[in-house]
Amino acid sequence: MRPSVAPDSAAERVEHEAFAGDVEYYLALTPRQLPSRYFYDALGSALFEAICELPWYPITRAERALLARHGREILSRVDQLAMLVELGPGSGDKLATLVAAAETPRRRLTVHLVDVSPAALDLASRTVATLDAVDIVTHQATYEAGLAEASARGSARGRALALFLGSNIGNFDPPGADEFLRTIRAELVRGDALLVGTDLVKPERELLLAYDDPLGVTAAFNRNLLVRINRELDGDFDVEGFAHRAVWNAVDSRVEMHLVSTRRQSVRVPRASLEVRFEPGETIWTESSYKYEPDEVKAMLERASFGLLAQWTDERARFALTLVEAV
Ligand code: AVI
User: Fold this and answer.
1) 222 CA distance to ligand 1 middle (Å)
2) Residue 17, Cβ neighbours under 10 Å: how many?
C-alpha cells in the first residue's frame, strides 16, 4: 500500500475533511468536476509559478508591466492611503512592483497579506520585506476572513487599497464573482479602494496556447490534482490514464480545463468513500478561467457597489487593471 499523508494541525485536518467531502461530491456530479482551488498544494503552487514564466501565458508579465507603468498613479488615486491588503499575494512580487513605483518619499504603509497557505505567506513576506517603510501583517485565512481581520485592524491614519490580481476573479463563475465582490465591498469602508486584474478575451489560438502549452507544464498542473488525491486520500488514479484538455467556450467566455479518461477504468478513493467508473473520453472538469471585455469588468464592479476610478489596459496582451472605490 502506498503511504498517504496524514494531516497534523487542526487547520490541516479541516482542509483535509473539506477536500475529501468535495472530491466525493464533485466527482459524482454529471459532468464530473473537481474544484480548482485544490490545484495549489506545494507542487501545484510551484507548477503555477512555472506557468507564470511561460512565454505562452501572458497574464503575469502583462500585469507586472501595467503595475510598474501605472503604479505611481494607482497609489496616488487613493487619498490618505495607509494600508494595502493583497488577497492571494503569490510570490509578493506584484505588490512589490506596485509599491516600488510609488513617489518617494511616501507615507509608511501597512501591508496585509492574506492566503490559506503558510508557505505562500512566508515567500510573499520575504519579498515585501525588501521594500522600505512597510509594516507587514500576515493572515493565514480565506480571502474573506483575512480581509475582515485586516479591516478590523484598519488604520485610523487613512484608507485601504485591496488588491485582487492575476485574474483570480476569472476562476469564479459569474454569480460567484458577483457574490465575492459584494463580500469584499462589505468589508471595506466608503473611500477605500480595490484594484482588480482581469484577463481579456483574445484570439482562441492564443488562449489555447496559454492553457495547453507546448512544454506540458499546464498539463502537469492539471494532472497533479489526481496525484494529490492519490497522496492525501489514498486514491488509485492512474495519472497516465488521463489526458489534459483545454477548450475555449465562446458562449460563456471561458477557457475550461478538463482531464479526459483515455480508456475504460475504475478508480477508488477510499478516504472520500468513492468508487468511480470512467468510460473512454469521459471528462473531469477541473477549472474555468473567465475572460472579459473591459466594460464587463466595470459593470461587474459597479454591481458590487464600487465606483470606477480608472482602468488601464494592455491592448497587445489583452489584460486590464481596474481601480474602483467603495461608494
Ligand atoms: C490562478 N488563475 C488565475 C490561473 C488562470 O489563468 O486561470 C490558473 C491557471 N490555470 C491554468 N493556468 C493557470
Assistant:
1) 10
2) 12
Residue 1 to residue 196: CA distance in whole angstroms: 46
Closest ligand 1 atom to residue 210 Cα is 12
Q: Which protein residues are within 6 Å of ligand 1, measured from CB? A: 51, 59, 166-168, 170-171, 211, 218, 287, 289
pLDDT, one tens digit for every residue, the chain (327 residues): 445 566 667 777 888 999 999 999 999 999 999 999 999 999 999 999 999 999 999 999 999 999 999 999 999 999 999 999 999 999 999 999 999 999 888 899 999 999 988 888 999 999 999 999 999 999 999 999 999 999 998 767 799 999 999 999 999 999 999 999 999 999 999 999 999 999 999 999 999 999 999 999 999 999 999 999 999 999 999 999 999 999 999 999 999 999 999 999 999 999 999 999 999 999 999 999 999 999 999 999 999 999 999 999 999 999 999 999 999
CA angle 324, 183, 10 (to 5 degrees): 130
CA distance 230 to 131: 41
Say what the pTM is. Answer: 0.95
CA–CA distance, 124 with 15 (Å, rounded to integer): 22
